[in-house]
């Protein structure tokens, strides 16, 4: 593997936003996740839980509800009183519409997917018709006394249940009038005397309404008579969310104590048809409030204030007990938030509303393998660049020379020039951006920092030439005819001749930058691309996919390389394929053309193409062999994948020069330390 | 004469009778029947030759009880009368017994397979046979590889399945499908699941739900286990140590669990948040049992106690409880230093009890408490009177009351390693609120800063002997003046004891180097000494005898001697293999008169001793035959008949007989049998109703037996009936009796008489039949 001096960076104090809503779409097997900063992420559960799309957040758009409607349309509603529809192709907001009911607390799409119901602060429930282009207000239901915090449709679409404060109302959809009002006991076993907030309701096809409330109760109501059937006290704190499976044989609730409880409908005796709801397993995967839960056919999905998205497969629903049946915990975005200037040893960290530029520390000390070297010069915080406006930063990039910073929000593109004069830095914003450059999905500088590549959210790719302090539009590659899919990933060859761009589903396009035309398209693969890079000299394009496959494609030859074919033939090691997180960055060693460096959140790997590939019998994660072992054994056990799991969670790793690596870690404990304190629970024995 | 185990720790598996009136409890080879209302032991069912391992009510007749034992038999008892009804011989050591109503005439037992630690659950068909001793049919396997603990197998409510747990898995066998489902918990080496082991299992009485207890204190409720894939379980966790036993309430509405915390937990609706507790039950809960009617629960504890608890979780009665001396929450945790009760003594003829408890976490941090308890005659228990914290600076080595009859105030002496002995007297402790007495320190004595090792009062209380390491000091109790000292330089004195009655001038001391010395208090000189490594020395309060137990390589030896002569009166080598911890003479109310010289020392008192394994042993004077009270002897007919309809029939019958007797001449040969002596009637009246065949079947016999026989019963026949009262009577002898009768009746020729004869004979035959019927399994007669 070779020995490297590693800059171990832990000053990237990135804290993901808490998860507010999740919405599962059964048809496409996709999960929409909204965070407290308004960001909406789309996870493809079929593609190894890869986060394939995201919509940047907005300060005023606190999302309170998220739902899918007919035809894979995604809607969200929030406290600014607007209903928003997202464009999943162009990755922007299609439109937003004010519901005129004050802040919106809840939203539910009808079982047919053609109607949308929102619950507002003023106690009104509003019904919208979903038209192909827009939504249209249809009518108001009987107004209630206080805000509507939760809504649920009866599967037949004839009735709805609405949870408010201290009561649950059942409405008839046709007449729009409340047919039952069920009052919830505020006090249960002396827990609380405050108002009882109905955080969630679920309407089952047999007429049962399940409610979860702030007193920690899960209650079953008969909607026909409006009576309470059964109460389960599950927590000492709020039960904040509920999700029912499509078969209505199980549901899941999330509590403010971080516990997720699973309820199942089991028959009382084996030979009777009588069934009862039983609380079965508790899952404690969260430390903070579980604000939202979802129930896919095979898994329980939960998210909350502690920023983790947890996908817990249901063992009894899983056919084969393979790696798909393992618990997933997704904390970090599946994209790069860090860019690096190798020349000046600078790191640019992207936060939701600002950028931080750091200069790495340096040392003069030397040591042997494994030593921690003392810093002779500490890392330097050079720049703190705040964005104007409420919009979150979508993407950012630092040029390899370190003198350009480009970033984009949903509506603006910014390019800045940095001047270094000894220790002073001056920032100069390049004004007069061209009108077509309003936003960007991905930004990349060429290796010599003379060209800027911008993937816009209309599917087009812009090329700019950068000169001392000025820039000039060179060319725009228009999107392939008929598609508006945005390019999420860009890679440029070190010689600056080739540009590779990939969207979320179609294949990777390779453009010739000199001739400004499409050179070729790598055949589309079933799984989305997670990282792209073009090797120096050989101009081989290395592509990592979310199913952990890696392809090497020779751009000059327009075909997969021999090594890529060999590894496809032999297959990857099973442990390699079972990794949780996607590869987010690929780079190359300037002096060793046979090496490919890549990393995901939990490992760093150097693939040595000259060595034999590992098969399933060999040890994949072998620690560095001890030096006293004979060379023969070392050679026999050596294989192409050299993996280091020393740095985790690893957000970024790159080669600064031949012998120096930079690794950016973000320990989970540091994130938890920055979160609000969780509900204090007495732990036995403490 | 041999030593007899009088009270071993009970291996309690308890269960309730159907109407909650009785509680059954297994104790060694016996089954004890307690009344739940009075806590009284009503019957002791004895007959098993080895440890009883399981008891179950007969599901077809709730007035009968099955029991199984290591002796390889299953016995059926009538617990109301304490009668053994039947014995089924299986022939293998039986480790547990289970019954359920659906299994026609089969019961389920756990047996051991050849390999150690491999147990099987087998069903045994109990044949219907009129005989009392029946060979059970060949057992047939239900489940293999089960746990030896009886708590690890449970039958489903409808008898459709049986659940067994062992180590890390739960197996459920479905009788209908004849298939076993097995559910395994992760047992992998990781710390989190390391204590996942199952400890017990119970089934819900109404629903398909199995509750299992685990070593880490969790309770899992399994549902949907008829599908090996779709099964699910709920976890309840309160216990921090292993769950010892579980029980569902009669309706299944709540689950009860108990463990080392000595807290009974009731989980209502099987929900985690709705649980109720009954804390401070004294000791680890070993078993929980729920009465079939559901109004009573009972828990048995590791300290040999049974608590009967009302459904509202209020303890209503305690059977054989221990006195709670420490009176603190018991915190069960590994590695925690607990408070130990180190010394206890009764004084003033049982009116006072002194206890010493200590806790020493580290060297030098000693917590000592002495408590004095007074006996309350009203509540029949001891009540705390005085609590003295740190009565001494160091461990208390001895505690002794002055038991002299003439002493005006109770006196207690404590000796301690801190070099002092303290005299405590009962003094007035009244204040303006109440009149009270309390114990205060009266005198502190020491001798050259030596550690006090033991103390002893003379019989009349006038002298106190306190040993200080190698020296014995004699103090006068009037003024607590040192009178004289004895020193033998034979090691620290461990035991001290004054002689009694005529030997009261002698003082005995045993040292740890194995020397027994006897000093004469009058001459202040050593009378005699001998080499004997004494562990226990106890004087008999009613005689001069002193019993000493010494530890030798083979076991413990008992010596009984008089202090006046160094020759033992009685020596019993090897009374038990383990160390004897304590011994005591208990005076007899009525002196025994043993003629044999060797036993005369037992005439006035009975000697009990406690061994290291907590067995209390004594010397029994009864022969082994006497000890075995045959169950048949308990079948004694009551003399007075209750006023039942039968009584009126019989009463009238008797009157008729009287009239006839008046009318008929004395010379008449026809002698009416006394109704009480008609076996059929007495049989009918004295056999419990639930074991009788149907009334229609009995009616003709009964009526026949009431018919007046013209022929007098021959004198030979009467003893025959008496003999038959005994159960040991063999069938062959009965047939013999028949044969003789027939031979007698062959002489009669008169036709008119013949009919009568026939009738009376019929009655006799039927009586025999009836007698046989009593031994038949009448399980089909279900109790109302």
From TrEMBL, chain A:
Keywords: Chromosome, Isopeptide bond, Nucleus, Phosphoprotein, Repeat, Ribosome biogenesis, rRNA processing, Transcription, Transcription regulation, Ubl conjugation, WD repeat. PANTHER family: U3 SMALL NUCLEOLAR RNA-ASSOCIATED PROTEIN 4 HOMOLOG. Its main location: nucleus. It comes from Myotis davidii. Pfam families: WD40. Interacts with HIVEP1 Interacts with NOL11. Part of the small subunit (SSU) processome, composed of more than 70 proteins and the RNA chaperone small nucleolar RNA (snoRNA) U3. May be a component of the proposed t-UTP subcomplex of the ribosomal small subunit (SSU) processome containing at least UTP4, WDR43, HEATR1, UTP15, WDR75. It comes from the Eukaryota. GO terms for cellular component: 90S preribosome; chromosome; small-subunit processome; t-UTP complex. It is found in: Chromosome; Nucleus, Nucleolus. This is U3 small nucleolar RNA-associated protein 4 homolog. One of its GO terms (molecular function) is RNA binding. The keyword Transcription applies.
């Amino acid at each position: 593997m070779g020995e490297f001096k590693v800059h171990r960076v832990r000053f990237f104090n990135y804290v993901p936003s808490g998860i507010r809503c999740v919405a599962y779409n059964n048809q496409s097997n996709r999960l929409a996740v909204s965070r407290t900063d308004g960001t909406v992420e789309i996870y493809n559960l079929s593609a190894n839980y890869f986060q394939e799309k995201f919509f940047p957040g907005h300060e005023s758009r606190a999302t309170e509800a998220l739902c899918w409607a007919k035809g894979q349309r995604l809607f969200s509603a929030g406290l600014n009183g607007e209903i928003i529809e997202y464009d999943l192709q162009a990755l922007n907001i299609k439109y937003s519409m004010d519901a005129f009911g004050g802040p919106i607390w809840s939203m539910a799409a009808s079982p047919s997917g053609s109607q949308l119901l929102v619950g507002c602060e003023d106690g009104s429930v509003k019904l919208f018709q979903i038209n192909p282009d827009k939504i249209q207000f249809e009518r108001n239901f009987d107004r209630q006394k206080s805000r509507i915090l939760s809504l649920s449709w009866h599967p037949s679409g004839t009735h709805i249940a609405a949870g408010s404060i201290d009561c649950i109302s059942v409405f008839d959809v046709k007449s729009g009038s409340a047919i039952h009002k069920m009052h919830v006991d505020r006090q249960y076993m002396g827990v609380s005397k405050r108002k009882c907030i109905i955080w969630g309701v679920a309407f089952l096809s047999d007429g049962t309404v399940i409610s979860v409330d702030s007193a920690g109760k899960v209650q079953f109501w008969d909607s026909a008579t409006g009576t309470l059937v059964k109460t389960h006290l599950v927590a000492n704190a709020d039960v904040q969310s509920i999700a029912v499976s499509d078969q209505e044989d199980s549901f899941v609730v999330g509590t403010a104590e971080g516990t997720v409880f699973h309820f199942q409908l089991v028959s009382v005796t084996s030979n009777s048809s009588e069934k009862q709801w039983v609380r079965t397993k508790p899952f404690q995967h969260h430390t903070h409030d579980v604000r939202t839960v979802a129930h896919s056919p095979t898994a329980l999905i939960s998210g909350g204030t502690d920023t983790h998205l947890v996908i817990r497969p249901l063992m009894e629903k899983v056919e084969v007990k393979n790696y798909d049946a393992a618990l997933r915990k997704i904390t970090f975005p599946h994209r790069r938030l860090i860019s690096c200037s190798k020349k000046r040893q600078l790191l640019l960290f992207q936060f939701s509303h600002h950028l931080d530029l750091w200069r790495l520390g340096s040392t003069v000390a030397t040591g042997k393998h494994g030593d921690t070297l003392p810093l002779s010069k500490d890392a330097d915080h050079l720049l703190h660049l705040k964005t104007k406006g409420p919009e979150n930063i979508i993407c950012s990039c630092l040029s390899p020379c370190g003198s350009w910073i480009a970033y984009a929000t949903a509506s603006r593109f910014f390019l800045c020039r940095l001047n270094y004069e000894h220790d002073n830095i001056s920032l100069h914003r390049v004004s007069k951006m061209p009108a077509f450059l309003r936003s960007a999905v991905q930004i990349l500088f060429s290796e010599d920092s003379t060209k800027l590549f911008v993937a816009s959210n209309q599917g087009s790719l812009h090329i700019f030439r950068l000169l001392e302090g000025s820039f000039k539009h060179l060319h725009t590659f228009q999107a392939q005819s008929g598609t508006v899919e945005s390019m999420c990933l860009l890679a440029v060859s070190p010689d600056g001749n080739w540009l590779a761009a990939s969207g979320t589903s179609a294949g990777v396009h390779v453009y010739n930058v000199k001739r400004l035309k499409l050179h070729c398209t790598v055949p589309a693969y079933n799984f989305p691309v997670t990282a792209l890079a073009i090797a120096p000299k050989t101009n081989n394009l290395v592509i990592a996919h979310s199913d952990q496959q890696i392809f090497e494609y020779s751009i000059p030859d327009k075909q997969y390389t021999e090594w890529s074919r060999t590894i496809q033939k032999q297959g990857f090691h099973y442990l390699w394929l079972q990794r949780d997180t996607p590869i987010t960055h690929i780079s190359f060693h300037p002096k060793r053309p046979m090496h490919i460096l890549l990393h995901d959140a939990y490992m760093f790997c150097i693939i040595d193409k000259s060595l034999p590939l590992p098969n399933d019998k060999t040890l994949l994660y072998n620690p560095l062999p001890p030096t006293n072992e004979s060379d023969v054994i070392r050679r026999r056990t050596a294989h192409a994948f050299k993996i280091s799991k020393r740095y985790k969670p690893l957000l970024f790793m790159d080669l600064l020069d031949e012998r120096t690596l930079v690794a950016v870690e973000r320990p989970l404990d540091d994130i938890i330390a920055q979160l609000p304190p969780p509900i204090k629970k007495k732990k036995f024995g403490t | 004469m041999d030593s007899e185990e009088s009270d071993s720790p009970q291996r309690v598996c308890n269960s309730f009778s159907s109407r909650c009136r009785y509680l059954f409890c297994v104790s060694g080879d016996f089954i004890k029947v307690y009344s739940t209302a009075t806590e009284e032991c009503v019957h002791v069912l004895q007959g098993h030759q080895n440890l009883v391992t399981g008891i179950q009510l007969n599901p077809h007749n709730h007035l009968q009880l099955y029991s199984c034992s290591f002796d390889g038999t299953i016995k059926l008892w009538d617990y109301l009368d304490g009668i053994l009804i039947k014995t089924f011989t299986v022939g293998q050591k039986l480790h547990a017994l289970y019954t359920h109503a659906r299994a026609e005439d089969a019961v389920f037992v756990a047996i051991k397979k050849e390999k150690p630690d491999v147990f099987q659950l087998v069903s045994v068909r109990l044949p219907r046979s009129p005989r009392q001793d029946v060979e059970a049919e060949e057992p047939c396997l239900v489940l293999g590889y089960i746990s030896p603990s009886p708590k690890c197998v449970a039958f489903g409510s409808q008898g459709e399945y049986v659940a067994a747990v062992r180590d890390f898995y739960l197996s459920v066998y479905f009788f209908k499908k004849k298939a076993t489902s097995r559910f395994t918990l992760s047992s992998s080496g990781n710390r989190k699941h390391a204590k996942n082991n199952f400890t017990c299992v119970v089934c819900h009485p109404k629903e398909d739900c199995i509750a299992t207890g685990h070593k880490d204190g969790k309770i899992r409720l399994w549902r949907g286990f008829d599908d090996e894939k779709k099964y699910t379980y709920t976890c309840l966790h309160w216990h921090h140590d292993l769950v010892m036993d579980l029980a569902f309430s009669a309706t299944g509405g709540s689950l009860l669990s108990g463990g080392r915390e000595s807290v009974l937990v009731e989980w209502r609706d099987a929900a985690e948040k709705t649980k109720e507790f009954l804390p401070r039950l004294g000791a680890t809960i070993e078993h929980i049992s729920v009465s079939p009617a559901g109004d009573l629960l009972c828990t048995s504890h590791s300290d040999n106690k049974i608590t009967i608890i009302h459904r509202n979780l209020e303890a209503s009665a305690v059977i054989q409880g221990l006195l709670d001396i420490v009176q603190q929450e018991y915190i069960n945790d590994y590695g925690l230093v607990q408070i130990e009760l180190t010394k206890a003594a009764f004084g003033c003829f049982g009116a006072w009890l002194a206890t010493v408890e200590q806790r020493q976490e580290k060297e030098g941090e000693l917590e000592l408490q002495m408590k004095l308890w007074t006996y309350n005659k009203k509540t029949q228990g001891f009540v705390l009177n005085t609590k003295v914290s740190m009565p001494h600076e160091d461990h208390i080595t001895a505690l002794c009351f002055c038991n002299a009859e003439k002493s005006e105030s109770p006196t207690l002496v404590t000796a301690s390693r801190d070099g002092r002995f303290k005299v405590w007297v009962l003094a007035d402790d009244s204040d303006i609120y109440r009149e009270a007495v309390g114990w205060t320190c009266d005198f502190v004595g020491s001798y050259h800063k030596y550690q006090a090792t033991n103390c002893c009062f003379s019989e009349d209380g006038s002298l106190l002997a306190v040993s200080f390491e190698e020296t014995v000091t004699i103090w006068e109790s009037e003024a607590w003046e040192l009178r004289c000292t004895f020193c033998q330089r034979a090691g620290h004195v461990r035991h001290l004891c004054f002689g009694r009655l005529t030997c009261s001038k002698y003082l005995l001391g045993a040292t740890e180097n194995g020397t027994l010395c006897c000093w004469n208090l009058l001459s202040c000189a050593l009378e005699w000494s001998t080499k004997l490594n004494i562990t226990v020395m106890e004087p008999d309060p009613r005689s001069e005898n002193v019993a000493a137990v010494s530890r030798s390589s083979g076991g413990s030896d008992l010596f009984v001697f008089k202090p006046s002569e160094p020759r033992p009166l009685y020596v019993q080598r090897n009374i038990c293999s383990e160390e004897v911890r304590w011994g005591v003479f208990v005076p007899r109310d009525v002196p025994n008169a043993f003629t044999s010289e060797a036993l005369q020392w037992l005439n006035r008192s009975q000697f009990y001793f406690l061994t290291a394994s907590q067995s209390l042993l004594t010397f029994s004077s009864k022969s082994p035959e006497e000890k075995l009270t045959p169950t048949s002897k308990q079948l004694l007919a009551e003399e007075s008949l209750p006023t039942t309809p039968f009584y009126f029939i019989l009463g009238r019958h008797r009157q008729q007989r009287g009239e006839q007797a008046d009318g008929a001449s004395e010379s008449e040969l026809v002698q009416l049998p006394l109704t009480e002596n008609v076996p059929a009637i007495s049989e009918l009246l004295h056999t419990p109703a639930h074991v009788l065949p149907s009334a229609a079947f009995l009616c003709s016999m009964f009526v026949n037996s009431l018919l007046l026989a013209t022929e007098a019963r021959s004198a030979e026949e009467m003893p025959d009936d008496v003999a038959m009262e005994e159960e040991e009577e063999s069938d062959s002898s009965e047939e013999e009796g028949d044969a003789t009768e027939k031979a007698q009746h062959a002489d009669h020729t008169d036709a008119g008489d013949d009919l009568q004869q026939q009738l009376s004979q019929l009655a006799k035959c039927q009586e025999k039949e009836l007698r046989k019927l009593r031994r038949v399994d009448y399980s089909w007669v279900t109790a109302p």
